[in-house]
Amino acid sequence: MSATLLAVVLSLVSAVAYAGAAVAQERLAARTTDAGMLRLLARGAWWWSVGLNAGAALLHVAALKYGTLTLVQPLGALTLVAAVPLGARLAGRRVSAVEWRGTALTLAGLSAVLVTASGPAPDDVLSVPQALAVTGATAALIGVLARPGARPGLRHASASGVASGVASALTQTVTVAVTDRSGPLLSWQVVVVAVLIAAFAAGGLLLSQTAYRGGLGAPLAVVTLANPIAAAAIGLSLLGERLQGGAAGLL
């Protein structure tokens, strides 16, 4: 099995797990007030969603070992594809024609991604100064998006997507650094980046939980869009990744 195909398969299974977690989070968020967020810690369903997120994240890490950021991250849109029928089933309704059209368009777009973003397994990593610079810029952006104001759900969803996308970029750096066997397994650089990953992953989870209070559809779509944009920006600008087809591939 080629590295690209393996990355696609792992991303598919990861997306299904993420979809299940997102649906569970949305159903919990709909029953949770601002004053009751801490009560989630006492709910088994919330911990099940955390477990699904963790399992999906591990599969995502494995996919990043074999595929580039510009390939793996857009495949996260499969989360939205899986969440539509899953959410409808749990809500006891049929998937609407509009939702099916959106799903079909998403799959068509992902087909184009597979053509333009396929490439060899990644071998470049972020340096510690680059990782810290990305962290600072991302933290500032998340602070702006998470501030009080209008449309908090969509802004929190954007912040969650950015946090998760950056966490994935940093995760790829750790995965490649650990598995290339060219240095110590736990160098201080790897430990620093791993701490940053944990911070962004936890922040993304909490931000998405807040975003889903207003419903699943729009916030999940925003998370799914912001995530690959953030990761691809890092991959293209700092990791030397390229899209096949030049300008046409970028479009």
UniProtKB/TrEMBL annotation:
Keywords: Membrane, Signal, Transmembrane, Transmembrane helix. The keyword Cell wall biogenesis/degradation does not apply. Residues 1-19 form the signal peptide. The chain crosses the membrane at residues 45-64, 102-121, 127-146, 158-179, 185-208, 220-240. Coiled coil: none annotated. It comes from the Bacteria. This is DUF4175 domain-containing protein. It comes from Streptomyces apricus.
